[in-house]
User: Fold these one by one.
Assistant:
Number 1:
Amino acid sequence: MKPAPHPKRELPIGIFDSGIGGLTVVRQIHHLLPNEDIIYLGDTARVPYGTKAPSTVIRFACEDLQFLTQQNVKAVVVACNTVSAWALPTLEKQFPLPIMGVILPGAQTALAESTGHRIGVIGTHSTIRSRAYERAMIGLDPLAQVFAQACPLLVPLVEEGWINHRATKLILQEYLAPLLRRKIDALVLGCTHYPLLKTAIRQTIGPKIRLVDSAESCARFVRERLTQLELLSHRRRLGAIQPFLTDETTQFDGYAARFLGVPAEPAWRVELTTATQPTALPQT
Ligand code: DGL
């Protein structure tokens, strides 16, 4: 007799981010798992997280995840690098469902792609300060040498749509020069917004260095994990993407066209309820 299907496998996947940047992760997951329904929460009222204290990031992340569990999702993907860097252990302790972040998949892909173990990572101030990518990579391969660079100006430039602007190219040259001097052979795009800058980054670093898109690695990781857990949907229709935002939704369509690239349901505005205080906040 065939085993009964997992009772939750047709529920949506919950994905959240500090804002709309996490739609780059939604895009990759929808591309790889097109029949999955997705509920997306963007905390646009409180973006950016990348400049905030770790304790604040953890508190916001608990509130975001609480909202998604109320939507009855089968698993949660933390699309935000900053949240993945600081809050994953707390979220895993507090919420009893599969939770996947972007750091481990990005670290694994970087190690697989790098031939000389010299890996650069770029991200927000908070992600770089956490050293989460570095710890993940050195934990998997003690020979890895990781060089990290915070690039705080890139998020606003991408949101402004200055993808191919000469100002963006100049700023990229400044940020990436120290990593190029370190002779990196792979570069992890450790922020939701950076996949949109791939072409400009490629022009800056030349053809040889491998570019690791943490959104793409995350999507492959999600597929593997849901397969192991027997939580993949078996439906045949195209999955729906339902966005929720914590601030006004008027500009969502413009952002969605750039970050998501596929149609989504109309965005709804929501208020988040305050989470019960997480147990172990770091003293920061
Ligand atoms: N989503 C954030 C990240 O990937 C970037 C935007 C922010 O600072 O909140 O780190």
Note: The two ends are 55 Å apart (CA to CA).
Number 2:
Amino acid sequence: MALSDVERIKAASSNLRGSMIESLNDPLTGALADDDTQLSKFHGIYQQDDRDSRSERKRQRLEPAYSFMIRARVPGGLCTPAQWLNMDRIATEFANQSIRLTTRQAFQLHGVIKRDLKETVAAINEEMMDTLAACGDVNRNVMAPTLSGLTDVHAEVQRHAKELSDHLTPATRAYHEIWLDGEKLDTREDEPIYGDTYLPRKFKTAFVVPPQNDTDVFAQDLGFIAIVEQGRLVGYNVTVGGGMGMSHGEPATYPRLGSVLGFCSTGDFLQVAEAVVTTQRDFGDRTNRKHARLKYTIDDRGVDWFRDEVESRCGFALEAPRAYAFTGNGDAYGWQRGDDGRWHYLLFVENGRVSDKGDARLKSGLRSIAEVHKGEFRLTPNQNIAISNVADADRSSIEALLEQHGIENSNQASTLRRHSMACVAFPTCGLAMAESERYLPSLVDKLEAMLANAGLDDDAITIRMTGCPNGCARPYIAEIGLVGKGPGRYNLYLGAAFAGERLGRLYRENINEAELLEALQPLFSQYAKAREVDERFGDFCVRTGIIRAVSEGRDFHEEVQS
Ligand code: SRM
Ligand code: SF4
């Protein structure tokens, strides 16, 4: 079979250089050359156009309103106040004013025009943050539990996440040449881990410390579940082959949860990670991008084959997995105190959008906090933010600033809303089929009322929406998963586990809002009346036969249940 076109582009790119410099300098268009739109992703940059004005501009025979989304990598979500202030300034000066916190603890800026791209990327780098490998066929932003200050174990895991992030960062100097005016090399550099054509597809890694599965470790290509014995981090259970993306109407594509491969000690995690990455590099499908993620390599060849390959590359065997248990997969809001006595405040940010809206001046508030904060910020895997590492004496000034900017009530949002996530979708995402970020808040208003009527207002139920089946808000592991099918129409998935350890299954297909409310209303009433003690909504749907549990990714697709 022929290699996919992106493979040709990578191979011809001279380690991700392509004709990017020429593209940036071309004054005749607001776009990059076609091949460079693929390569720019490896540099954290996506070419987009305003979907709201697309057809009108076409009618007027104008070029689409091109602009760029820039994604900045933030390993483990750790961001200093200086970095926050820098992002705030750049968003205001070059982007659409807002900052978008992503589902992978990273930043996105939208609406940067080509003329400003280079200056914007350079400005991000001024505060020691970069955009290299934030997208593309490489290891992306490495996630780690949000509150690394909680215990020594959390802090150690955060350090490991950073080490792994550094280890898997591409070696190419192209980024420095293109964006930072770095010196041009005469010879091409080696990519010791990736090789010249990088990976067959994107690759994602997360660390997690049970019992909170806040990084949704089973949705990752590669996961490290911290194993703590007698208060000490002894190593990790390694998970492989998680992923959410699929395409409507193509059953060969499906979401899959990571398989637990085995246990490795803390000294070995880098070697294991490299072996997993290089195995995928060598065996992943480079002919069909819809079949190129690690999850398909593993399902095609089997978990045992994969383990043997990883072990032979490592030169040692993994041990049997050790016991662990998860209780939830969201963020723990409000103040929490770490073992070292320092405080952390986790703030709900609806769908990760940081902007000033009416009296709730979130962007200004976080700017004011960053101006005085002596600790750091933590971006969470659920699009929220923590003001982290606060001394006893400084708590009240942070609280006063939250209040002054009208955001002290953010955490008083309903339990449902605090467990909700929506991907970006319209107007920027080129793949969106339906609204998501702009629509979910109003849908939640309606569902809140229904839950209150059923006496369920205090119950945590995870709800996630995406504008297409790619799964950027990880909807297939939400107890209520909503996936865009077309304008105003969604597939409804039920039966996922609260802690992200079981996929949901299609319950209703291609329904509008009225049909959705009609479908959920009786289920909420049944749940309120017939649930067992502490039973979660997703588990209830499975136990009572509302939906059949999904046992593994390959079992995800089946006819809609009536
Ligand atoms: Fe995603 C593509 C946004 C997390 C699966 N994702 C996109 C693009 C870049 C659209 C595109 O290719 O043109 C979206 C940009 C929209 C915009 O206008 O900003 C986009 N993805 C996002 C973010 C911003 C969603 C959010 O609301 O936070 C997240 C950025 C994460 C980051 O900081 O790196 C984001 N995307 C995810 C996740 C969740 C995760 O990683 O835990 C997934 C599911 C997990 C997975 O990868 O399987 C995800 N995004 C995809 C896919 C499907 C991949 C697949 O295997 O099929 C695509 C499309 C693709 O790659 O072809 C995609
Ligand atoms: Fe775009 Fe689809 Fe991802 Fe939403 S899930 S951001 S619509 S690619």
Note: Residues 46, 48, 69, 71, 102-104, 106, 108, 140-141, 202, 204, 216, 219, 243-245, 293, 352, 383, 423-424, 428-431, 470-474 surround siroheme (ligand 1) (CB under 6 Å).
